[in-house]
Specification:
Layout: H1 7-40, E1 41-50, E2 53-57, E3 62-67, E4 74-75, E5 80-84, H2 87-150, H3 156-216, E6 219-221, E7 226-231, E8 238-239, E9 244-250, E10 256-262, E11 274-279, E12 282-294, E13 320-328, H4 331-334, E14 342-348, H5 350-355
Antiparallel strand pairs: 1-10, 1-14, 2-9, 3-5, 3-8, 4-7, 5-6, 7-9, 10-13, 11-12, 11-14, 12-13
Length: about 350
């Protein structure tokens, strides 16, 4: 029995045929476009957006009393991110300041003592002069009595009295001289003690500056304009100096793309070449960039365990060379790209031909 096709069957067959033709044309256009891109561009999909993502590190330890940021929050340079309990640091400052005031007062006392000792030294010097005058006068009296005694005009007792007085005056002169020397020594000792106290004042001033610096570390601020990353801390948490408190993405520097090109592709590239960037997140929005540097070595050379071809199990594998590309364009456009996003990178080979 001859099978008959209905109008519906013929319509379905016709529509299916047109769909097949459309798919064939689409595949043909896609294939031609892909071949054209491979012919005209050096392209790779092994590329990611990079930014400076830096840790916010505590420089002081203590309990967190307040956290002033949220995850993904934009911040400006100098904005307060969190506060650490500062009472211990304030007490250290007060204690050091009191020690410094005590040392300054001691230096003032020593300065006053120096003035007193100098006046005493002047008085001792005057006593030496007076004692010398007495010795000089008594020496003359002794010489006269000695002549008179030799001439039998004075008694021996008178001569002995004069001689005894001369000995007393000479002893007084030596005592005055020793007293003057002792006063000079006391001045030198006082000056040495002043140097010790002055050094202590210098040390305490430096210590006070250090404590004030430590106090300033209890207020953690944003080092630059950026966006905060994941938040892992909370009020009341105990932290130590050196702990990582959060991460911040730097907005003050340019974004860049690290494209890992095959070593067979880099011959058509040069620093300064223009680049077209297509992000997976924004397939209809092309971005533009410029090659700014080539890695000094392939990615495998920087790995933790680089392959050693001398072991005898060598298999030739095409290596990839990281190429750093600066993302150009206005800030509101480049802000669409975030660190870690996957992108496709296209570098026009005609640039290389034009340079030749």
């Amino acid at each position: 029995m001859k099978k008959k096709y209905t109008v519906t069957d013929r319509l379905i067959t016709r529509i299916t045929g047109w769909i097949a033709v459309a798919l064939l044309v689409a595949l043909l256009v896609w294939g031609i476009q892909t071949l054209w891109d491979y012919h005209r561009y050096e392209l790779t999909n092994d590329a990611q957006v990079q930014e400076y993502v830096n840790p916010v590190i505590s420089r002081a330890g203590g309990f967190i009393v307040e956290v002033k940021f949220e995850e993904n929050q934009p911040v400006k340079k100098g904005d307060t991110l969190l506060l650490i309990d500062s009472r211990e640091y304030t007490l250290q400052i007060d204690q050091t300041r009191a020690s410094l005031e005590k040392a300054v007062a001691q230096l003032a006392v020593l300065n006053s003592n120096t003035n007193t000792l100098r006046q005493s030294s002047k008085a001792a010097a005057s006593q030496i002069a007076a004692a010398k005058a007495k010795v000089w006068k008594q020496q003359l009296d002794y010489e006269r009595y000695e002549k008179m005694y030799n001439a039998e005009s004075a008694t021996r007792q008178q001569l002995e009295n004069v001689k005894a007085t001369l000995d007393v005056y000479q002893a007084d002169e030596r005592a005055a001289t020793d007293n003057y020397g002792a006063s000079v020594s006391r001045i030198a000792d006082n000056e040495s003690e002043k140097n010790v106290v002055a050094a202590e004042i210098t040390r305490l001033k430096a210590l006070l500056d250090r404590h004030e610096l430590d106090l300033s570390y209890t207020v953690v601020t944003a080092p630059y304009d950026g966006r905060m990353g994941r938040r892992t801390i909370e009020k009341g948490q105990m932290i130590n100096a050196g702990d990582v408190l959060a991460y911040i993405v730097d907005n003050e520097t340019d974004k860049w793309v690290v494209a890992n090109y095959k070593e067979t592709q880099v011959a058509h590239m040069q620093i300064g070449d223009s680049v077209r960037i297509m992000a997976d997140a924004y397939p209809e929005h092309p971005f533009h960039g410029t090659i700014i540097s080539f890695s000094p070595a392939t990615g495998s050379s920087f790995s933790l365990l680089p392959p050693d071809n001398a072991t005898g199990n060598y298999v030739k594998i095409v290596q990839r060379l990281p190429v750093r590309i600066r993302v150009d364009g206005p800030r509101n456009e480049t802000d669409l790209l975030r660190s870690g996003m996957n992108v496709n990178v296209y570098i026009n080979k005609d640039q290389h031909a034009q340079r030749k």
